[in-house]
Amino acid sequence: MRLNDLPEGCRLYGDASYRGDCPPESNEQVTFFAWLRRAHPKLADVAIHPRNEGKRHHAQTQRHKSEGMNPGASDIIIPASASFVCELKRRDHTKSRWQPGQEPYLEASHALGAFTCLALGWEAAAEAVEDWLATI
Fold first, then answer.
1. What is the mean pLDDT of residues 57-61?
2. Which residue has the higher pLDDT, 112 or 51?
3. Which CATH number fits domain 11-135: 3.40.630.10, 3.30.565.10, 3.40.1350.10, 3.10.20.310?
4. Parallel, antiparallel or unpaired: strands 76-78 and 11-13
5. For residue 99, which of 75, 132, 123, 130 has the smallest C-alpha distance?
6. Which of the 8 DSSP states describes residue 114?
7. Tens-digit pLDDT profile for residues 34-52
């Protein structure tokens, strides 16, 4: 995963030098949303994780796209006066990779005024939320 070429306006949270054992991204996602429900329940009421992962047949993909699915949508989206848009990767970023459309999604979100970030692990995403809250 390339960290040197973050999308325009995208902030990096987490320790980019960390290497070692870390939970899979899906576990990081679960832990983050559990934290959000405890720390910021009103935000948790509107926060979403778009379900864009997984294998689909071509016809399913086309139907889902026509229904509004955006395969590049970030992992954590919190709508607000300045939306929070966060791509969550594993704490050891060498065990993650960009999926098609994720970088352009972050760039487009930033261009529309969103707070955009790449978080390496759930704790980094929580730190990003706290920074974002300080700006809105």
1. 54
2. 112
3. 3.40.1350.10
4. unpaired
5. 75
6. -
7. 999 999 999 999 999 997 6
